Amino acid sequence: MLRCIFSVLLLFITGVNALAIPCDVPAVVVKEIVLEGNETTKAPVLLQELTFAPGDTVPVVELEPLLQENRKRLLNLRLFHHVSYSYVCEEGLVQVQFEMQERFYLYPIPIFDFADRNFNAWLEKKDWSRIDYGLNLVWRNFRGRNEEVRARVQRGFNKRLELSYRLPYISRRYNIGAELSAADYRSRTISYNVINNRQLFYEQEEGLPIKRSYVSGALIHRQSVQRSEGVRLSYYQESISDSVVRLNPEYYTHSQGARQYLRLELYKVINQRNNFAYPLVGSYFEAGVAQTLFLHNSGSPFTTVRAKYVKYSRLSDKYFYMAGAEGQLRLAKEYAFADNTALGYRSYVRGYELYVIGGQHYGLFKQGLTRSLLDIKSIKLKFIDNPKFNNIPLALYLNAFTDAGYVVANEFHQHNPMTNRLLLGGGLGLHLVTFYDAVFRLEYTLSREGGRGFYFSGRFPF
After folding, report:
1. Does 15 have pLDDT greater than 90?
2. pLDDT tens digit string along 317-356?
3. Where in the sequence is the signal peptide annotated (predicted)?
4. Tens digit of pLDDT for each residue in 237-296?
5. Residue 437 DSSP one-character state
């Protein structure tokens, strides 16, 4: 009893994450795991993530590293603002306690977005009619089981309806989860061609130039929050107007105005980053292969292979280095313009944000040197009582970077000089990381072609 009282006093005085009274035996048996603060999250969901359980024998020298590793596992579920642990040893038994502060899980996110590929592409046009608006409703940790429900209702320039439901476990015994999603997309404009690596758009006065809908289902084998693999089957239905077919008969190949296809994808992810929102230490690996099969002779089947690996390293207390690469191979006898995507969308060489480099295969390399300028764990907002909202973390980083990319295009490369050419970019940026994993980047970049300027983005660069 005295030992327990002393332990609590020590935690209060020091304020450290881990409370530890040295165990006087070489190994201890885990007597109990206590969870505090999980008002919404079900205990079995959290205990499933831990790498130890009551009854396990743990060498004393391995106890602290074990608890620290599991604290990170719980934190990377992205269900909590912070997680801490404490433990008490007594007569060869150890009682472990994890304390956590839950986030707010149900929130509507207003949609006010740009209809172009990114903010910089929209800024070049400055066309306020090219704005999307609506509501994105996200319910994380649905039913307290780390499930996620998303519903998106978007109007404006591009109309979109989306619904998805993710279940981390449909079989806890075999660590099998599932994901279901469906969407319908309709736009007032379409990029029907690319000349000089710039998109050409067609806006139809009556009707819609493109419609797209899909349903998708996946089974996911989830070894842990860091390791998973899965299989996904999707059905797509797409159509374009007759005007688009006349502008580009090869948009869907052979002057077709519609197509339907199935896509079967296998993938694997190993995410060993210290923080999923803005990693500084660790590594990330992702690989996948997908087979696309067209129905009713509406296209030529193709295979897509992709891979990505990034290493994050600590150089000193405030300096960090990141280097990584990703690539894609797309194999087919015949390619449609709509499938000729490589760099310029989700993946791109910084400095080329305004360009689209289409092709069948590509390789991309990025590296960056980061210095921590500011790292405030929590800014207390005294006028807000709810602990889910009244603590705001704030981190600011200075980042110097260089990117390189190469796109191989055997089709649709005429009049696009940046295909089949080495692309180089570099620059300096400020990265801000704050509330609920939000990341904001302002970067000044230079490209091999002589382009330069400031670019803004709202996600982690790699």
Report:
1. no
2. 999 999 999 999 999 999 999 999 999 988 999 999 889 9
3. 1-20
4. 999 999 999 999 999 999 999 999 999 999 999 999 988 889 999 999 999 999 999 999
5. G
Q: Specify the DSSP class assigned to residue 343.
A: B
- Identical topology for domains 2-102 and 106-457: no
Q: Phi and psi for 2 in degrees, rounded to 5?
A: -60, -35
Domain ranges of the chain: 2-102, 106-457
φ, ψ (nearest 5 deg) of residue 48:
-65, -30
The number of angstroms, rounded, from the C-alpha of 162 to the middle of its chain's C-alpha atoms is 18
Greater confidence, 130 or 414? 414
Please name which of 225, 284, 221, 282 lies closest in space to residue 77, comparing C-alpha atoms.
Answer: 225
Query: Residue 5: what pLDDT?
Result: 39
What does DSSP say about strands 106-114 and 131-142: parallel, antiparallel, or unpaired?
antiparallel
Tens of pLDDT along 406-420? 999 999 988 999 999
Q: Are 442 and 396 in contact (CB under 8 A)?
A: no
Alpha-carbon distances, residue 397 vs 255, 367, 376 (angstroms): 50, 15, 12
- C-alpha 5/C-alpha 18 separation (Å) is 16
DSSP state of 65: H
Q: Residue 441: name the closest of 343, 370, 355, 362 by CA.
A: 370
DSSP string, 66-128: HHHHHHHHHHTTT-EEEEEEEEEEETTEEEEEEEEEE---EEEEEEEEESSSSHHHHHHH--T
| 450 dihedral zone (left: phi>0; alpha: psi -120 to 50; beta) | left
Region 124-136 average pLDDT? 76
Fold of 2-102: Ubiquitin-like (UB roll) (3.10.20)
The pLDDT mean for the chain works out to 89
Cβ–Cβ under 8 Å, residues 165 and 224: no
Gap between the Cα atoms of 369 and 323, Å rounded: 9
**What integer pLDDT is reported at residue 382 of this predicted model?**
79
**Cα(208)–Cα(28) distance, integer angstroms:** 68
